[in-house]
Each structure stands twice: as C-alpha cells, then as structure tokens.
Amino acid sequence: MADATRPLPSLADPDTAPFWQATKSHELRFQVCDDCDAVVFYPRRHCTSCLGSALSWKVSAGAGEIYSFSVVQLSRHPFFGQKVPYAVALIDLDEGFRILSNVVGVDDPVAQLRVGQRVALEWEDHDEVAIPLFHPA
Ligand SMILES: [Zn+2]
C-alpha cells in the first residue's frame, strides 16, 4: 500500500484560492478591511465587522501563540493515523487573526505544549499548495 497522503484543499473556491495560491510562495495571507481596519480570517468576500467588500491582502510574519489545542491520540484516517499523537491547535497570530493548524516538531504534545506558548510558522510543501504548520518558537 502506498504511503497515505494529506487531504489537500480545493483551489476552485474563489474566496480562498488567493490564500492557497500564496502558500506556494510560503506566504501566510490574511485580509484587512480598507474601510474599518478589521482583520479578516479565514478569507472571505466581505468584512466580518462592517460587511464592506473592500478587503486587502496582507502577509503574516508567521509568529503567534497557542490559544488552545487538543491532542489526537487515535485516528482511523490513513494519513493522520500515522501522525498520532499530534496536536490540533488554534494559533493566534501576532497580526490579530486565529488559524486552525497543527503544532509539529514535538514528540509528546501533551507534555511539551501549553496554552500561550509561542510558535512559529513552517511549511509542508505539496505540488499545488503548501500547508501552514507551526512549531514551538
Ligand atoms: Zn470592515
């Protein structure tokens, strides 16, 4: 049996395609509203604060902290099953948005991760996209 591969996002969605296309260049993009300066993430057509449609893309520096996390100990998915135990985390980026991702680079996420811990961005490269992941800073 071939090695299982990560399920990857669709590039067909017009709202999120610019985000995923930028990952190929290792850019973690988010949006800022031109009218009210609200930070918008995940990518959308409208500002979540004022409902305006004038949104500009910005690039995150990739630094943040763990807002919360859970450790997956058992997965029946062919790809994720070989990764256990792994941390699924909500990461608060310094630019003011929150992303759901994994914190990697630790052997025992229960013992080695904590809420508020600083993390830094890294990339898992694929043909069409790169997946943003985080590791302890
Ligand atoms: Zn707005």
Compile the SSE list and pairings:
Layout: H1 17-23, E1 29-33, E2 39-40, E3 55-59, E4 63-72, E5 86-93, E6 98-103, H2 109-112, E7 118-125, E8 130-136
Antiparallel strand pairs: 1-2, 1-3, 4-5, 4-7, 5-6, 7-8
The structure holds zinc ion.
Can you walk through the features of this model?
The chain is mainly β. The protein has a single domain, classed as Beta Barrel (OB fold (Dihydrolipoamide Acetyltransferase, E2P)). 8% of the residues lie in helices and 37% in strands. It is built from two helices and eight strands, in the order αββββββαββ. A hairpin with a 5-residue loop joins strand 1 (29-33) and strand 2 (39-40). The chain is globular and about 45 Å long. The protein starts with 16 loop residues before the first helix and ends with a strand. The protein binds zinc ion. Residues 33, 35-36, 38, 47, 49-50, 52 line the site of zinc ion (ZN).
Features:
binds zinc ion; 3-stranded antiparallel β-sheet; mainly beta; 2 helices; 37% strand; 137 residues; 8% helix; OB fold (Dihydrolipoamide Acetyltransferase, E2P); 5-stranded antiparallel β-sheet
